[in-house]
Design goal:
single chain; mainly alpha; 9 helices; about 90% helix; about 0% strand; elongated
Length: about 260
């Protein structure tokens, strides 16, 4: 009896997960249908892109600087053991562009902008603003969700590029300024070793992470329980699910590119 109950519980858990995945997929299809009509109001999309990306700029730049500095220290310590300190620029660039830049930016975006999107839409749900739009024959997905979704998808690749640039400057600051690596070899080896496919990999990762994090944020906000505790729970779920999904997608995309 106990094993049967455990089996039923396991199947029930799998069914709930699959049901949730299906609901998210249907919601994504609904958003994509409204993206083109939402773009007819570019001012609204630009405002949401600024809210998602511009207001996250300081934390992204600050994190990129210190991640690059740490990468410069650790990379120099590792390469020094093999007498290859001049390759520090290559190691820093590949590490930032292909891996650290997209992943850390997505995690920061989920923690700052993702929670903001969820709480904003969730508050509109809790105060019946979304219901009022439906009663006035205004589609809340087109008016509220789609512009915020587009803004998040656009903002993450831009933030990732800024993170990479600032991170490289941080690695240069430590490697050249503190460790004595020649500035010419730092940049020249990086330029000769980093290829377009490496940049393309980072770009595709950032786009996928931006889509996933933005989708989770607006989905949790739109389907939150209309209570204060429901909004708080939806905000927490946004951070947890976005972080886990980012890491899972990172592994899958890295395996696909390799």
């Amino acid at each position: 009896m106990k094993s049967t109950a455990n089996g039923a519980g396991g199947r029930g858990w799998i069914s709930r997960v699959l049901g949730e995945v299906g609901a998210v997929a249907l919601f994504l299809a609904r958003i994509l249908r409204q993206c083109v009509p939402a773009l007819r109001s570019p001012r609204h999309v630009i405002v949401q892109t600024y809210n998602a990306g511009g207001r996250s700029l300081i934390i992204v730049m600050l994190s990129g600087l210190f991640v690059g500095m740490v990468l410069g220290l650790q990379g120099y310590d590792l390469l020094q053991r093999f007498g290859s300190e001049s390759a520090l620029g290559v190691a820093a660039a590949l590490g930032l562009i292909k891996e650290l830049g997209p992943v850390v930016t997505a995690l920061l975006f989920a923690g700052r902008a993702g929670t903001s999107l969820t709480s904003e839409i969730g508050l509109m749900r809790a105060t019946d603003q979304l219901t009022a739009m439906e009663m006035m024959a205004v589609d809340p997905v087109r008016r509220v969700v789609a512009p915020r979704f587009i803004g998040g998808v656009v903002a993450v690749p831009l933030l990732t590029a800024i993170f990479d640039v600032v991170g490289l400057l941080g690695a240069h600051l430590v490697g050249v300024g503190l460790m004595g690596v020649e500035s010419g070899s730092f940049w020249s080896q990086m330029q000769s070793a980093v290829e377009f496919k490496d940049v393309n990999e980072g770009l595709i990762k950032s786009l996928c992470f931006g889509l996933a994090c933005s989708l989770i944020a607006v989905y949790q906000g739109y389907h939150t329980e209309p209570t204060a505790s429901g909004v708080g729970l939806a905000t927490t779920r946004t951070v947890v699910i976005s972080a886990v999904l980012t890491l899972v997608l990172d592994y899958m995309l890295t395996a696909a590119f390799l």
